[in-house]
Write a structure and sequence with these properties.
The protein is mainly alpha-helical. It has one domain: Tetraspanin (Cd81 Antigen, Extracellular Domain, Chain: A), CATH 1.10.1450. It is 73% helix and 0% strand. It is elongated. It starts with a helix and ends in a 5-residue tail after the last helix.
């Protein structure tokens, strides 16, 4: 019984921490949506920009961790099994996305390059109507110190200030596509470790919730 109580409160604590983190990410997403204009780098995924991505991730983390926290605290079988199912679905989605990226790496690269070119054209059109407008391109270019897709010529003489090097006013020589690809390749090991850690946490969460679920079922407490 003491082990089950320890398991219960450990699950409550971990889910509470994730709930706070999810709420913080959710809040940052809302702040960016209300304070800054964002547009997607990829027109085919127009709804997927930095602000919306943080908003969606925050909602998912908050909802799942809330189910786990409340289910463990109240020892509610319905909430615990819902928590288990959601974690299982998330893990399958993550593994499917990882396998797809590995199997179709070349095709995905070509799709991203083509879509980025459409995205940069839309950004140019929007900047013609509003010179001070900013979007995801500015964030990426300032963060990775790059300009355009391959170089500054992709902007067709409408190069934004985010392409300029601090101090001298010249543009970054390297394009963002190669910079992003290099950054991904350099951090491939860390990314893989991160995915494995997330999957381990999800598996532990499923094991904890199912252990509590089975204990409640054997105790005859039923659905509360």
């Amino acid at each position: 019984m003491s082990c089950l109580k320890c398991l219960k409160y450990t699950m409550c604590l971990v889910n509470f921490i994730f709930f706070i983190c999810g709420a913080a990410v959710f809040g940052i997403g809302i702040y960016l949506m209300t304070s800054t204009r964002f547009s997607s780098l990829l027109p085919s995924l127009q709804a997927l920009n930095i602000a919306n991505a943080l908003f969606i991730i925050g909602i998912i983390i908050t909802c799942v961790s809330f189910l786990g926290f409340l289910g463990a605290l109240k020892e509610n079988r319905c909430l615990l099994i819902s928590f288990f199912i959601l974690l299982f679905i998330l893990m399958l989605a993550e593994l499917a996305a990882a396998c797809t990226m590995l199997m179709y790496e070349t095709q995905i690269g070509e799709f991203i390059d083509k879509d980025l070119r459409q995205g940069i054209k839309k950004s140019i059109d929007s900047r013609k109507n509003n010179i001070t407008a900013k979007d995801d391109w500015d964030t990426v270019q300032m963060t990775f110190q790059c300009c355009g897709i391959q170089n500054s010529t992709d902007w067709n003489n409408n190069v934004p200030k985010s392409c300029e090097m601090p101090g001298n006013g010249t543009h970054w020589a390297e394009g963002c596509f190669s910079k992003l690809k290099t950054a991904f390749d350099d951090n491939l090991l860390n990314t893989g470790i991160g995915v494995i850690v997330v999957c381990i946490i999800e598996v532990l969460g499923m094991c904890f919730s199912m252990t509590l679920f089975c204990h409640i079922s054997r105790s005859g407490l039923g659905y509360k």
